[in-house]
Amino acid sequence: MLTNTRPLISDQEADVLKGFMFERRAVLGAGLAAGGLLITPLAAQAASSAEPAAEITVDQARTAPIPILIANLGGGIGSQITGVLTNDLSGTGLFKVIPGGDMSGTPDFAAAKATGARAMVTGSVSGSGSVRVEMRLWDVLTGKQLQGTAYTTSPDNWRRIAHIIGDVIYKRMLGEEGYFDTRIAFIARSGSRAHQRTRLAIMDQDGANARMLTAGNWLTLTPRFNPVKDQIAFMSYANNRPRVYLFDLNSGRQQILGDFAGISFAPRFAPDGRSVILSVTRNGGSDIFIVDLASGARRQITSSGAIDTSPCFSPDGSQVVFNSDRGGSPQLYIMSSSGGNVHRISYGHGTYGSPVWSPRGDLIAFTRIANGSFSLGVMNPDGTGERIMTEGFTVEGPTFCPNGRVIAYCRQTRASSGGSGFNSLLGSVDITGFNDRVLPTPGQASDPAWSPLNG
Prior knowledge:
Largest sheet: 6 strands, mixed
Mean pLDDT: 89
Shape: globular
Radius of gyration: 23 Å
Helix content: 10-25%
């Protein structure tokens, strides 16, 4: 950390944050005695234990949500896990959850069929010092077990267990990785429209466990997760000098990323987490740099004399999509990660910004401004197949969930001349434009960034 600068948070506050155990990967990787997680497969309670293919495609589930019966896993923690699991699956729009009440022993498949359920979840919770959560997923029509797993962990991890179970069900039924055991970093906003206080914050993807990471003394923007470490890059106006910072979720401490002569902004990590790509103001424009996190070495990859910003690596790290006004108006361009082979990909009506590459590599999400209104859309990396998913007074800042299926974004409403009526919320929408909904946050929020799975 540089000297003679006022930190975003004090060392004492950092020590408090460390106590909230932000290091989620350690929970999964540590031994049980350290508060980790032990995962044990359960033998099939049916004639066949072979794992068949996914039960249904996402496209089919979008048209006709999968009816799934979820039994109550018991009182106390069991009931809480049931509630979180229900909310996770229901929130996708791909499952129709049927409450199953208390069930023990062999499932009553005839009763389950009568409810219209195609799949059923049963299980139980036992223990106190450490808890054992058993979950079984059943095909109601055949009476066969599709999945059986036991999780042994600290009682404090009950919510994560619910999300992990949800991810297992999601993958088993739909054939894609789930995204429930993730978090979203964002900017928490409070105060009047003209004098908003902004704080770096983080929460579970369902809005639970929200924590403020900075005190709000300085304007803070654009958090981004490291894909392989418990670390966030973000921009702050600390000490009235806008620069990119790194925040360590394990220690609660932050440091400046490269003390550039100009303003540094719009950071994103490389797929391997070893470097950060960002923009730096220079001579009335801005250029794109890559900073190696281990050595601090910088490499400039654009020098167009224009405003080049909002860079984002492709999932394999070989290419970068970015926003530039080098052609006269802000548009989207792609180049190699070395800075060569620059070509434009956006040719629709209006101006384009905030590009972000899908983790799958098949789509680029963006914000488009045309006729004074905002749209959020996706296109193929070659610029074809552009389609709009949602529109509004302001919809911006797209971020993909780890499996590339859902995009979170910021939606803001128009304010009156006096500033009243303004609201800033987080929303999420399927990449097809399906299931556009508001995400729960502790007050107003903007600038979402979705973590990797288990991040």
